[in-house]
Amino acid sequence: MTPPPILELRDVRSAYGRIEALKGISLAVNPGEIVTIIGANGAGKSTTLMTICGVVPPTAGEVRYDGEVISGRNPDLLPPRGLCQVPEGRRIFPRLTVEENLNMGAFFRKDQDQIARDMEHAFTLFPVLKERRRQRGGTLSGGEQQMLAIARALMSKPRLLLLDEPSLGLAPLIVKRIFEIVKQINQQDGVTILLVEQNANLALQLATRGYVMETGQVVLEDSAANLLKNPEIRKAYLGE
Amino acid sequence: MTLEYKKIFQKWALGLAWFYLLLWPLMGITPDGLSFAPSLKVWATVAAGTAFFLFIWILKQQGRLDFFSRPAISLGRSVGKAVGALPNKLLAVAAIAALCLPPLFAGRYVLDVSINVMIYVCLGLGLNIVVGLCGLLDLGYIAFYGVGAYTYALLSINYAVPFWLCLPVAAGMAAIAGCIIGYPTLRMRGDYLAIVTLGFGEIVRLILNNWMELTNGPNGILGINAPGVWWPNWADGFTLEHIWLKKLPYLYYVILGLALFTILAVHRLNYSRIGRAWEAIREDETAAELMGVNTFRLKLLAYAMGAVFGGLAGAFFAARMRFVSPNSFLFIESAMVLSMVVLGGMASIPGIILGTLALIALPEFFRDFEQYRMLAFGGAMTIMMLFRPKGLWPAKRLGQRSEESQ
Questions:
Q1: What is the rounded distance in angstroms from the CA atom of residue B374 to the CA atom of residue B363?
Q2: Substitution target from A81, A83, A104 for chain B, most B beta carbons within 10 A
Q3: Is-contact A108 A139, C-beta < 8 A?
Q4: Which pLDDT score, from 0 to 100, does residue B401 have?
Q5: Helix (H) or strand (E) holding B241
Q6: Among residues of chain A, what percentage have pLDDT more than 70?
Q7: Which of A64, A115, B238, B311 has the fewest CB atoms in 10 Å of its CB?
Q8: CA–CA gap between residue B104 and residue A82 (Å, rounded)
């Protein structure tokens, strides 16, 4: 028997005003997996993540994390329970220093010694951040900011990490490095990952399973290997 | 003179022409008819002043002032280094000692102005928590000052409660008022919040103005007690004598204590975990929320903490004037305090003290031009926004730190 999913969405709907962005999403993420959601602009991928975190409240359906219903809760209650998001566009705190940004990731934690050790761990994953620890976040390059955003989320010791378009606006070489580190986080630290990406090729190579979203709905669900082979997916998302 | 300087002078002339166009309707059109002489006089003064500074600037650009400016700058730098090498505690003690001196020799007028400055330092630093750290634009901050002042006034008049006891009560009442105002409004962001706080500031003033039974309305409350202390008296044996701190030198020390307390408290808050969370909320509220910050509770806390210092300053204001009326808590006061924070540098404690000095003490030196104070204010603000948008003394965390390490 497989273990119960760490995250489960059941027929979740959400809307911005009167415009429905999610029209009944169901998906599940099992512990230890890397699951990716791919789809075009405006398909509702980022909304899905924001709905999971409660920033956008769902209008129907339920979100279960770790066997408990979390939909309708305040977003700030989730990081202490091991669910953290790296939002789209990085959204680091530009006028706080790199170190202060990382400390914000550990905001709810009280164990100072462990926080210091986790920061060292983050610095081994991203050595460039150590060099720039006293620099303001806003002065970093795009790739460094993305690394900072991931490191900041790691400071909350997540069991499930939601990553929203880590490749956005970055050079291919840096994207490759970031994806390698994501893999490392998954394999060495045992963090389950839900990855939203437009770069379907890279995402499917990294992930174990994938969901394809179109206009607020999940249209396809399969193992990543099968999705990579699927001719329709290749045509629509892999540019063939 | 090269072409470049010619251009500069052309711009200067154009600017002055434009200035006169604005100035003349303000000064020249009077009930007795049109006049040119007074406006021309002011205009000529401004023209002469700007011409002088322009001339100095050009000389400096050409390097003709190097014989003076180079040694002056290097002297300034070495003095700065020498001061920086001293331990911070020593500097703080020296500064406090220096601040304790004025009542020994200064006259009434100087003390009066210094007391005013320190009241506004408390207000500015309190507002700084809300605006500078947490990034919430509050246009009704003076309401908390009013709540503090009326709390002490009413307790003193009706129950003769001593000042020192009322200080925490006033701070508490202001904090409660902050929560009452904050609770429904803090769900809003940006401009909407500014408008709502503006409205709440006015509501508080109108309540003070119209609740005749409690506040005596626009007539205000008279006969508030000054702060009192028990002072040892060795005239015949040892007795404790109760004296009222009515005189300005005593009041100076009271507000100095309050201001130092405020500075210390705001400094500690600034570098605490909560201060960092406030700054994170200012930078990106959603991201802060995703990092596990309860943004609503922290914003409410910022409001309440800001109100506490407003309340303290208000209680002192009531004790010092020994009279309060709703007229002291107009919108213009909120705007003044906000200007101090913006002018001095958001989230920067020395900046705000500097901003307060600039906006309270400087106008005292230019009493003769009182009529044009708002004009000068506007001009100064515009120039500031153009040349020093981060304020006179920008906050470290907001500014230089990264460049320092490079």
A1: 10
A2: A104
A3: no
A4: 41
A5: strand B239-244
A6: 99
A7: B238
A8: 61
- The pLDDT of residue A48: 94
Q: Give the integer Cα–Cα distance in Å for B255 and B386.
A: 35
Q: Which residue, among A17, A14, A72, A71, has the nearest Cα to A44 in the 3D structure?
A: A14
Question: Which pair of tokens denotes residue B107?
Answer: 């006259």
Convert A16-50 into a string of H (helix), E (strand) and C (coil): ECCEEEEEEEEEEECCCCEEEEEECCCCCHHHHHH
Total residues belonging to chain B: 406
Nearest Cα residue in chain A from B274: A107
For helices A98-105 and A112-125, the axis angle rounded to 10 degrees is: 120
Contact with chain B for residue A104, Cβ under 8 A: yes
Torsions phi, psi of B322, nearest 5? 60, 25
Mutate to test the interface with A, among B291, B298, B400 (most CBs of A within 10 A): B291
The tokens of A239 are what? Answer: 């540019």
* pLDDT for the residue numbered B397: 54
The phi, psi pair for A2, rounded to 5°, reads -80, 150
What is the spatial distance between Cα A168 and Cα A182, in angstroms, rounded to a whole number?
15
- Tokens representing residue A101 in the block: 């940004």
Q: Who's near A31: CB < 8 A, 6+ residues apart? A: A3, A5, A6, A159, A192
**Gap between the Cα atoms of B146 and A105, Å rounded:** 39
Report the amino acid identity of residue A213: M
Which residues of chain A fall below pLDDT 70? 1-2
C-alpha–C-alpha distance, residues A125 and A119, integer Å? 10
Q: Can you tell me the ipTM of this complex?
A: 0.91
Question: Within a 13 Å sphere around the CA of A109, how many CA atoms are in the beta-carbon half?
Answer: 25
Measured in whole angstroms, how far is the alpha carbon of residue B44 from the centre of its chain?
32
> What is the pairing mode between strands A60-65 and A68-69?
antiparallel
* Alpha-carbon distance values, B223 to B106, B213, B226, B372 (Å): 27, 17, 9, 34
Could you say which DSSP state residue B238 is in?
S
Q: What domains are there in chain A, each with its CATH number?
A: 7-93+157-237 (3.40.50.300)
Residue contact B402–A139, C-beta within 8 A: yes
CA distance B179 to B302: 10
Distance CA B312, CA B16 (A): 45
- Burial of B296: CB neighbours in 10 Å, binned 0-12, 13-18, 19+: middle
Closest in A79, A87, A135 to B292, CB measured = A79
Q: Which residue of A has its CA nearest to B293?
A: A76
Cα(first)–Cα(last) distance of chain B, in Å? 40
| Alpha helices by DSSP H, A106-209 | 112-125, 127-131, 142-154, 172-188, 200-206
Distance (Å) from the alpha carbon of A2 to chain B's nearest alpha carbon: 30
**What's residue B398's pLDDT?**
45
Q: Which residues of B touch A (CB under 8 A)?
A: 273, 276-277, 279-280, 283-284, 286-295, 397-398, 401-402, 404-406
The per-residue pLDDT for B1 is 52
Question: Token pair 């904050």 is at which residue?
Answer: B182
Q: Chain A contacts of B292, Cβ < 8 Å?
A: 76-80, 84, 107-108, 156
| CA–CA gap between residue A158 and residue A106 (Å, rounded) | 11
CA distance B341 to chain A (A): 18
